[in-house]
Amino acid sequence: MTTAKRREIDVLLSEERTFDPPPGFRDRAHVVGEQPYLTAADNREGYWESWARELHWFQPWERVLDWQPPFARWFVGGKLNAAYNCLDRHLAAGRAEKRALVWEGEPGDVRTYTYRELHAEVSRFANALKGLGVMKGDRVAIYLPMIPEAAIAMLACARIGAPHSVVFGGFSPQSLRDRIEDASTKVLITADGGYRRGGIVPLKANADAAVDGVDIVEHVVVVRRHPDGEVLGGATMGERDHWYHELVAEADAECPAEPMDSEDLLYILYTYGTTGKPKGIVHTTGGYMTQVLATTRWVFDLRDEDIYWCTADVGWVTGHSYIVYGPLADGATQLMYEGAPDWPDRGRFWTLCEKYGVTILYTAPTAIRAFMKWGAEWPAKHDLSSLRLLGTVGEPINPEAWMWYREKIGGDRCPIVDTWWQTETGAIMITPLPGAIATKPGSATLPFPGTDATILDSEGNEAESGLLAITSPWPAMLRGIYGDEERYRTTYWSKWEGAYFTGDAARRDEDGYYWISGRVDDVLNVAGHRIGTAEVESALVTHPVVAEAAVVGRQDELKGQAIAAFVSVVDGAPVSEDLVKELRDHVAKEIGAIAKPADVIFTADLPKTRSGKIMRRLLRDIAEGRALGDTTTLADPAVVEQLKKQYEGSEG
Ligand code: WT7
Question: Where does 347-484 have alpha helices with state H?
Answer without folding.
Answer: 348-356, 365-374, 377-380, 399-404
